[in-house]
Amino acid sequence: MENRKSICFIVSSPMTAEAFLRNHFKVLKDHFEVFLIANFPLNYNFNKINLKRENIIHIEIIREINFYTDFKTILKLNRIFKKYKFDIVHSITPKAGLIASVVGFISKRPIRIHHFTGQVWANKRGVFDVFLRYLDKLISNLTTHILVDGNSQLEFLIKNNILNPNKAQVLGNGSISGVDLEKFKPNIRTKLFIREKYKIEEETIVFIFMGRLKKDKGVLDLVNAFIKLSKDFSSRELSLFFVGPDEENIKFLINTSSIKASINFIDFTSTPELYLQLGDVFCLPSYREGFGTSVIEASALELPVICSDIYGLKDAFKNNKTGLSFKVKDVEDLKNKMSILIKNPKKIKQFGENGSIFVKEKYSSNLVSNCLLNFYQQL
Fold first, then answer.
1. How far is residue 181's CA from residue 175's CA, in Å, rounded to a whole number?
2. What band does 2 get if pLDDT is binned at 50, 70 and 90?
3. Which domain holds residue 321?
4. Cα–Cα distance, 110 to 128 (Å, whole number)
5. Under the phi-then-psi rule, with left for phi > 0, alpha for psi from -120 to 50, and beta for the rest, what region is 126?
6. pLDDT score of 1
7. Above pLDDT 90, what percent of the chain?
8. C-alpha to C-alpha distance for 23 and 32, rounded to whole angstroms
9. Residue among 89, 77, 11, 160 at smallest CA distance from 379
10. Does 64 share its domain with 87?
11. What is the tally of structural domains in the chain?
């Protein structure tokens, strides 16, 4: 036990660890000494992290660029790296990756890994785009190994000259964490309970979005498509639910009082597996995604999915098998794909069942965690 190698994960927010790393910690703890560094808020409940308290370290890593704060963070992280002498440092999220790669390189940590999970610059233009691309390229150059959570994202990064293809790879079939199939398991009693809570009739078809409410997630496109859809199917009971934190005051951009269509909002939830079962069809009309974890979670719950045809999402579903693809930013195409499923309830059932099989075969959390374990052991 004393000679076990040490792995330190570095993330900006502990929410990243809660969402993506808990099962990894569970699997890795039997083989390595596992640490976590993150920016923990005051009075944080450390029981949410599946690690020993002494292996959890607070450091101020902020998402925004602030040269003074970032310099202090670099100095502090350098002291921590020198004290603990981690064998492997593994960063996730852009800001954590930038700071960890710089300090890991300076302190000569032998194995420095960064995990790419999406690119902020993918749909931006101008100076900001060039700057963010440069930072991702810097992270790639300063690390010894790069992981990417999807094959289409890996192709995109190589095409844009961000990564050296010889030191980047996708583990297994992709996904940073996979899906906990014990948690994301369809349950008819749960579905009836949650739909009754929100007074949804049995014959109502519910389209559902789950994630951060932002313009580049395509949420306004989804609203516009749904309003058109409601007019086309005025005799049918349709409903649209948004589940997630409203980061750009999206609710205020949608005057639901003047819309006859049923549009509903539920704030951030720590039990997505419960609220997803409100829906009959899952929609993700995003402009950019690294992979699409919410898509495979919905598929695990036997929801057909409708996704924009962007890199990242291509790995999370199969067009015309687990769901339907539409042209990104094309509201009319999105509406048409939603219409197809309303007219074909058998497709809703068929795509949902196919999606569940697809996720079980490729993206169970235990499968993904064991891929990561094998990767570390080979290093």
1. 14
2. low
3. 188-362
4. 32
5. left
6. 43
7. 87
8. 14
9. 89
10. yes
11. 2
